[in-house]
Amino acid sequence: MIELRKLRKSYGSRQALDGLSLTVPDGAAYGLIGPNGAGKSTVLRLLLGLESADSGELWLDGMRPDSNVRRLKKRIGYAADSFGSYPGLEVGEYMRFFAACYELSGTAVTRRIQLLLEQAGLMGREGQQVDSLSRGQQQRLSIARALIHDPRILILDEPTEGIEPGSRQALLRFLSELSGEGKTLLVSARQLSELSGLCTHVGILDHGRLLIEGEVSEVLRSVNASSPIVLSIAGALPETMRILRRDRKVRALSIRNREIWIHYDGTEEEEAGLLAELVAAGIPVRGFHREKGDLEAIFLRLNGNRGERTVTSYETESDFPER
């Protein structure tokens, strides 16, 4: 398990982490998502013991990284967002070099290298120079290298960045296979769509704070509960808008594709009450449902939602698009 508790970290006057707490359960594939400057790289540097937090606690596999760096190196695999340059070095040499760094040798490590290259889709490329590999192949090789000592935890810094779609799918298949083996994955990315289908858990980070965290299914349920209501009516727009504007649970209104989108902060019971009020007022309701979200929509909504109540008014029937 990886656990961060109220972490704060500043670089001069810039606060990179602002009381950040998050939990990565054992065996999870956790996507740490956020734009540039959100604090993702700072989190990874702290986990790797490369820096120390100003305050707060950080636990990785039951140990504090700042005081157990050597022990944790045996339990963690890490692949950076850039591959580096290895002029003249072949794929097989690259893997054997890093195996030697962990004091691994003999027939067992040879079999281990073959297995990892097969998983990474790089079988038969042992004699190819690493600098001649594509960006996607280099990234898979970097992850294979990070697994050479069979770590329990794999930390990846934006592994899909700059990779074309075909290579990205191959990389995600590789990571999904590792997740299926029970390894704990912590993967950072700028966009949720980059990790589509991989994550069991997700945390969305912005300006050093966690906006939302949990199992993907739970996050979807939570955010779907606050997704806009889509209301379709056959007429009576002015009266409909007056009813909606009176309700303090209505945070924002807009008309899209001949439908009224209602950002509504009420419970399911209050939502049902709103529908009943519309019907009782004689509004010709054709449709009333919550819009379902996806992970990318959640990311955009959480980053764009500042909690304002913005109600758009439409006073005449002519303001509603013709059917």
Please summarize what this structure is.
The protein is built from ten helices and 13 strands.
Give an overview in words.
The chain has a six-stranded mixed sheet, with helices on both faces. A four-stranded antiparallel sheet has the order 11-12-10-13, covered by helices on one side. Mean pLDDT is 86; it is low at 306-323. The termini are far apart. The protein has two domains: 2-215, 3-Layer(aba) Sandwich (Rossmann fold), CATH 3.40.50.300; 225-319, Alpha-Beta Plaits, CATH 3.30.70.100. It has 323 residues and is of the alpha/beta class. 33% of the residues lie in helices and 26% in strands.
CATH homologous superfamily designation of the largest domain: P-loop containing nucleotide triphosphate hydrolases
Strand content: 25-35%
Largest sheet: 6 strands, mixed
Which fold does the CATH topology of the largest domain refer to? Rossmann fold
Q: Please tell me what the overall shape is.
A: elongated
Walk across the major sheet and give the strand order.
5-6-7-3-8-9
CATH class of the largest domain: Alpha Beta
- Determine the number of helices (DSSP H or I, runs of at least 4 residues): 10
- Overall number of strands: 13
Q: Tell me the radius of gyration.
A: 25 Å
| Average pLDDT, all residues | 86
Helicity, in percent?
25-40%
CATH architecture of the largest domain: 3-Layer(aba) Sandwich
Low-confidence stretches: 306-323
SSE order, as H and E? Answer: EEEHEHEHHHEHEEEHEHEEHEH
Distance between the termini: 55 Å
